[in-house]
């Protein structure tokens, strides 16, 4: 968030935001974690709607923090009973990533554009500024990603891609119940994304 250190009101709001963020990312763990993947830098766990109240309370705290960080309006999940939350937990027991997926029936395919020729720096700048467009014709889909977030200091380490891969693996192997939002295609049909923004679309571009 932006604030002026010389403004008492801004300073107070910044302190409140900071404390809420620290509380949300702190992870103490719980019994019978549903671990989907373990890695040298952390693990991915899955939280389902019928999990204990303390787990769901933590997920809600994380969702509010993620919405604030992404600049989303605070909106409750449309169908809580069909929501799956994937959390990436770092080795220092912090929530470093979050993916929230919901059951859907249709989505809108992202319209691909040709890759810009130029230096690596020019390509990065183009990716950050490009507009993402989608078809107006709905197509059948199974899963919508309403939010995907990675802590700023942990980005570009493949965390988002790993959470997406856990989601896809669960769908393909039927180990996850089929899991709703406004939505856009991921390249592995029939999973789609509802966040056509550069930072959120980047992990999808490497999926096949």
TrEMBL record:
<dbReference type="GO" id="GO:0000785">
    <property type="term" value="C:chromatin"/>
</dbReference>
<dbReference type="Pfam" id="PF13880">
    <property type="entry name" value="Acetyltransf_13"/>
</dbReference>
<protein>
    <submittedName>
        <fullName>Establishment of sister chromatid cohesion N-acetyltransferase 1</fullName>
    </submittedName>
</protein>
<dbReference type="GO" id="GO:0061733">
    <property type="term" value="F:protein-lysine-acetyltransferase activity"/>
</dbReference>
<dbReference type="GO" id="GO:0005634">
    <property type="term" value="C:nucleus"/>
</dbReference>
<dbReference type="GO" id="GO:0007064">
    <property type="term" value="P:mitotic sister chromatid cohesion"/>
</dbReference>
<feature type="domain" description="N-acetyltransferase ESCO acetyl-transferase">
    <location>
        <begin position="139"/>
        <end position="170"/>
    </location>
</feature>
<dbReference type="InterPro" id="IPR028009">
    <property type="entry name" value="ESCO_Acetyltransf_dom"/>
</dbReference>
């Amino acid at each position: 968030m932006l604030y002026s250190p010389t403004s008492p009101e801004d300073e107070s709001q910044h302190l409140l935001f900071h404390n809420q963020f620290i509380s949300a990312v702190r992870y103490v763990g719980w019994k019978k974690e549903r671990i989907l993947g373990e890695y040298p830098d952390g693990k991915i766990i899955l939280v389902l709607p019928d999990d204990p109240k303390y787990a769901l309370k933590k997920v809600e705290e994380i969702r509010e923090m993620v919405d604030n960080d992404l600049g989303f309006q605070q909106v409750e999940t449309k169908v809580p009973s069909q929501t799956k939350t994937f959390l990436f937990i770092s080795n220092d027991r912090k929530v470093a990533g979050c993916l929230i997926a919901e059951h859907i029936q249709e989505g809108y395919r992202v319209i691909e554009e040709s890759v810009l020729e130029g230096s690596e720096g020019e390509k990065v700048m183009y990716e950050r500024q490009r507009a993402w467009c989608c078809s107006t014709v709905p197509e059948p889909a199974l899963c919508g990603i309403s939010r995907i977030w990675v802590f700023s200091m942990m980005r570009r380490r493949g965390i988002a891609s790993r959470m997406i891969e856990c989601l896809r693996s669960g769908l393909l192997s039927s180990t996850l119940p089929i899991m709703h939002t406004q939505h856009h295609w991921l390249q592995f049909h029939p999973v789609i994304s509802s966040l056509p923004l550069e930072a959120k679309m980047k992990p999808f571009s490497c999926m096949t």
